[in-house]
Amino acid sequence: MEPEDFDSEDKEMLSWDINDMKLPQNVKKTDWFQEWPDSYEKHIYSSEDRNAQRHLSSWAMRNTNNHNSRILKKSCLGVVVCSRDCSAEEGRKIYLRPAICDKARQKQQRKRCPNCDGPLKLIPCRGHGGFPITNFGKHDRRFIFLQSKGEHDHPKPETKLEAEARRTMKKVHTASASVPLKLKESPEAKIKHTLPR
């Protein structure tokens, strides 16, 4: 369909910008939630969509300063990779979520790869003219508008659920490795320890 074939309502659905004072309200059909928005995308979600309400994204995003309090602005942090470019047993590469806090992210880069013990390195997102990709979200009456600016120039990091599962497995493994095996004492030995000398 050519742009001239659209009626004025269709053009309004396509031409809005997150900074517009008046966003389209005659939306007939909302979008399915997109977990990995990439490129210069615009989506209109129902205000009832729980993922849209949380401005959820599987990209590692952090809230950034925005001078307009009505618009939520999130910037992509990139991905943490193994500097040896190793692969796990299943053949997948190590693509970790960067920590949100600057200090924690620096500490994360001093850690070792969970697969090969090699050094980790951060690949920052620079997909928006050399700057991080930015997602903008705005709740306006019955709809949540999301606009993504830029195209990610790095691999997808593990999702939050995958990261939590990996950390849990590591804690379980570490805890089980640090518990010393207790040898069972005979009842007579226990009595000897408790008798006064």
TrEMBL record:
InterPro entries membership: GCM, GCM_dom_sf, GCM_large, GCM_small, Tscrpt_reg_GCM
GO MF annotation, one: DNA-binding transcription activator activity, RNA polymerase II-specific
Subcellular location, record wording: Nucleus
Domain GCM: 14-169
Disordered: annotated span: 149-197
This protein's UniProt keywords: Developmental protein, DNA-binding, Nucleus, Transcription, Transcription regulation
Gene Ontology BP terms: cell differentiation involved in embryonic placenta development; gliogenesis
UniProt feature, compositional bias: Basic and acidic residues: 149-167, 182-191
Keyword Amino-acid biosynthesis tagged: no
Main location: nucleus
PROSITE patterns membership: GCM (PS50807)
GO cellular component, one term: nucleus
Protein name: Chorion-specific transcription factor GCMa-like
Species assigned in the record: Zalophus californianus
Annotated gene: LOC113934112
